[in-house]
Design brief:
Chain B: This is PCI domain-containing protein 2 homolog. Chain B: One of its GO terms (cellular component) is transcription export complex 2. Chain B: It comes from Daphnia magna. Chain B: GO terms for molecular function: double-stranded DNA binding; RNA binding. The complex is a heterodimer of chains A (350) and B (462). By secondary structure, chain A is an all-alpha fold. Among the domains of chain A are: 152 residues, no CATH class; 84 residues. A three-stranded antiparallel beta sheet of chain A has the order 1-3-2. In chain A, β2 and β3 form a beta hairpin. In chain A, 41% of the residues are buried. Chain B has 462 residues and is an all-alpha fold. Chain B has a domain of 172 residues. Chain B has 23 helices and three strands. The chains are: A mainly alpha (350), B mainly alpha (462). At the A-B interface, α5, α7, α9, α10 and α12 of A face α17, α19, β2, α21 and α22 of B.
């Protein structure tokens, strides 16, 4: 890979002065950016045919690190507006940070300690996507695109794993300065097919014997065998970031879980299954959400509205309902309210 | 060499260009200035090939595999150009076979060399080799104007097999898809040589396992095993490593004789455990040989055998209870007895619900009475019969289409009601049974004690 195609950034402010001037002129400065000092470079599709002075608009690694810290501590922690609006702003600015990393070649080659810093930044991003995937899941698609968020999460994760493999080959000891254990476990829990499990089983035994990784493997295998109860049970003991990831992934399995219970409990005369019990299995926050989900899938409730009826001859139909991706959980909300966002994102809540 | 070339004797020329042939031992070939001698004796385009081959030989003799690879790669590329110009002719296919094989072999050795030096990307030489071979593949695949006898398309399957070997080694199975499609579309699909077909099906079978398509995997691997020459014991053994777990999943256990014959005793504990419904034994068996199973990539299928083991265990429990409505506690106690830690009624119900969902138990769970009500007729259908019906795709979000009902064949509700298959209906009409459907606490405690005292000991002896 020709190093000549990568630029060495020289910008030492969060926002390149040129850009700030242009944006100010066109009234494109966001409310968060009260002055030049608090302006942050925004994301734009990389323009072709950049001039030689391009490096002035690309932030160097230290600046990028400081930018991310600023976004987390001065914007997210301060919480001056709704979570959705904070997400919008920080999502875009983080995208710009990642873009600056890419054009400088930091995601390709190995650059010693700097690669560790790059890995750290990506780890912060991964936790960012997971945090908001969880907290904004209950919003309608117009307010929060869980699909887009998921795509960026997936991209970030694969870039990170790629970096880890480079670090492992070049300087194995540096790996300990990263959170590779947490990320490997995260990647496994979010994996949509058994390829993730195959990969996890072939990890070096030192990694595999770590409790977090071991539990994540057990959870994945349990899910693979259909043992949702065991998976949910083990997941409760995971560190916070992994729990959020687990729940995000689990919501995709809800239709299957409902199918299994419907099939296992349905009788010709109709079985009444308590919504409260089903709620626990489906990881919904309230019985009402559970009821809504069941009804959307073609099931009916009993007269009291506290049980769903499983009867032979009912046809289940699945479509993305309003509730299927809803991750909202009162207990988690309270926990997250009491944890400083930046702490979570830095990985300190493990 | 020149005369073999002129007489278009593919096999003879290929011998001279292969590293398997004894000529590679001769020191005379790589003496100083051999290039000039070659140019003198051999005509173009053959001379280029010979020179590259000898240069490669030189590198191999000095154990410089990275350089040997480059020479071989240049050889393959030169050959590709040459091959393309040979219209309506395929005698050079034999040459193609040997040089492709050697290319792959040197790539493997070159990667090992790079790994020792702390390479960036493991398997990068193999990836390059794959690209090289794809070039050759395209030449073969594109040759659709020639007659069936002279077409280069006959070389396709050999190359596909070489590419499979590379892709499996560098773990890029998704690249196999396009090749499989190409072979499937070929009219020669069933006319390639048997050994090539066996190799092909072996890899396609392994890929199917990786994608959890066990029915297809069984089909391919069975073909490979049955048609593999009986003297290729090693190959037969390799095929069995994958065929055995797949067949077990589909309800057929291997005989001890088979395992002994092919030196696959790692599986014998697993087989015994599954047959007995002994979870503890299965877990130990998996632990004992986990490195072997993981390395071969069959560990996950063997884990899936837990479901079969649950089914066998629960069948025994049901038989011992001698009734059609079994309290869930019975199964819970059995699981605890088998060493499953931290398990509760919730989890037991979940396991049973899954078995019903997969048609392995015919019945339903009564939530209010916490009992499994089973069909009076064949409540535990033989696994082999079920697997024919159910497409058996496991839980994976990508294969789970949110707009279908999943893989289960739902029994016709009208039919089963008419035939009175469900014991629940019959029992509702009865008033006196050993276990009435009333929730009776005293009966329950007594029952649990009975379970613990009586049948757990019986269970151990079965």
């Amino acid at each position: 890979m020709a190093a000549a195609t990568f630029v060495q950034g020289s910008c030492k402010t969060m926002c390149p002065p040129d850009e700030y001037e242009i944006r100010k002129e066109h009234n494109l400065v966001r409310p968060f950016e009260t002055s030049f000092l608090s302006a942050v470079k925004c994301y734009s599709r990389s323009a072709a045919g950049q001039s030689a002075a391009r490096h002035k608009n690309i932030r160097d690694l230290t600046t990028l690190e400081n930018t991310v810290k600023y976004l987390f501590e001065q914007v997210l922690d301060r919480r001056k507006t709704s979570l959705a609006q904070l997400y919008d702003f920080v999502f875009d600015r983080l995208r710009a940070v990642r873009q600056d990393l890419v054009v400088q070649g930091y995601l390709e080659g190995f650059s010693g300690l700097r690669t560790v810093t790059v890995a750290k930044i990506l780890e912060y991003c991964v936790r960012f996507y997971i945090y908001f995937q969880f907290r904004l899941s209950h919003l309608p698609a117009s307010a929060f695109s869980s699909h887009l968020n998921q795509n960026h999460l997936d991209e970030c994760l694969s870039q990170l794993l790629h970096l880890y493999s480079k670090i492992e080959v070049k300087n194995h000891d540096l790996l300990h300065q990263t959170s590779h254990i947490e990320i490997e476990a995260l990647d496994l829990l979010l994996s949509k097919n058994s390829a993730g499990l195959h990969r996890a089983l072939q990890l070096p035994s030192k990694t595999k014997s770590n409790t977090i990784v071991r539990n994540s493997i057990e959870i994945s295998i349990s899910l693979w065998l259909g043992n949702f109860v065991r998976a949910n049970h083990i997941a409760r003991g995971l560190p916070l970031s992994l729990q959020l990831a687990y729940r995000a992934h689990f919501s995709l399995l809800r239709p299957r879980v409902l199918e299994v219970y419907e099939r296992g409990y349905r009788s010709p005369q109709g079985t009444k299954f308590p919504l409260e019990k089903l709620r626990r299995y489906l990881l919904f926050d309230t019985a009402r959400q559970t009821a809504e989900f069941c009804v959307d899938c073609g099931l009916s409730l009993d007269d009291t509205g506290s049980s769903v009826i499983f009867k032979t001859g009912t046809a289940l139909k699945f479509s993305t309902t309003s509730q299927s991706n809803n991750l909202y959980d009162q207990d988690f909300e309270e926990t997250l309210e009491n944890v400083r966002v930046s702490h979570f994102l830095y990985g300190q809540s493990i | 060499m020149q005369s073999s070339w002129e007489s278009r004797s593919g096999t003879e020329v290929s011998e001279f260009l292969s590293f398997n042939h004894p000529h590679v031992m001769s020191a005379k070939l790589t003496a100083e200035g051999f290039e000039k001698s070659v140019e003198r004796l051999v005509e173009s385009p053959l001379d280029e090939l010979v020179i590259l081959h000898l240069r490669c030989l030189n590198c191999v003799n000095q154990q410089k595999y990275l350089e040997a690879y480059s020479e071989q790669s240049a050889l393959v590329q030169a050959f590709t150009k040459l091959f393309q110009t040979q219209k309506e002719d395929n005698w050079a296919l034999f040459i193609m076979y040997v040089i492709s094989l050697d290319l792959r072999m040197f790539a493997i050795k070159a990667d090992k060399e790079l790994a020792k030096k702390g390479a960036d990307k493991p398997g990068q030489t193999l990836e390059k080799a794959a690209e090289c071979l794809m070039g050759l593949f395209r030449v073969c695949a594109a040759d659709n104007r020639s007659s069936d006898e002279d077409t280069k398309r006959w070389g396709m399957l050999y190359l596909v097999n070489q590419l499979f070997k590379i892709y499996f080694r560098i773990n890029k199975l998704h690249l196999c898809k396009a090749l499989i499609r190409a072979i499937d579309a070929s009219q020669f699909k069933d006319h390639f040589s048997l050994s090539q077909q066996v190799t092909y099906r072996y890899y396609v079978g392994r890929k199917a396992i990786f994608e959890s398509d066990f029915k297809s995997a069984e089909k391919f691997l069975t073909y490979a095993f049955e048609r593999c020459h009986r003297e290729c014991r090693n190959n037969k053994r390799l095929i069995l490593i994958y065929l055995i777990p797949v067949k077990m999943l589909l309800g057929h256990l291997p005989t001890p004789h088979l395992l002994r014959k092919y030196d696959l005793l790692q599986f014998s504990e697993v087989v015994q455990a599954v047959r007995e419904g002994n979870l503890r034994r299965l877990n130990n068996a998996l632990l004992q040989h986990d490195a072997f199973f993981i390395r071969c990539g069959v560990y996950l299928i063997l884990e899936k055998l837990k479901v079969t083991t649950y089914r066998n265990l629960f069948k025994k429990v049901t038989l011992l209870m001698k009734t059609h409505q079994i309290p869930i506690e019975a199964y819970l106690e059995a699981l605890k007895f088998m060493g499953v830690e931290d398990i509760d009624l919730d989890e037991t119900q979940c396991i049973i619900a899954n078995l019903i969902f997969e048609n392995k138990i015919k019945g339903y769970i009564s939530n209010s009475h916490n009992k499994l009500v089973i069909s009076k007729q064949n409540p535990f259908p033989p696994l082999a019969a079920i697997m024919k019906v159910c497409r058996g795709k496991e839980i994976s979000v990508s294969s789970f289409n949110l707009f279908t009902l999943g893989c289960v064949d739902r029994p016709n509700p009208a039919a089963s009601q008419a035939s009175g298959n469900f014991a629940g209906e019959a029992v509702a009409r009865q008033t006196s049974t050993c276990f009435s459907l009333k929730n009776n606490e005293v009966d329950r405690k007594e029952l649990i004690n009975r379970i613990k005292n009586e049948f757990l000991t019986k269970l151990a002896t079965i």
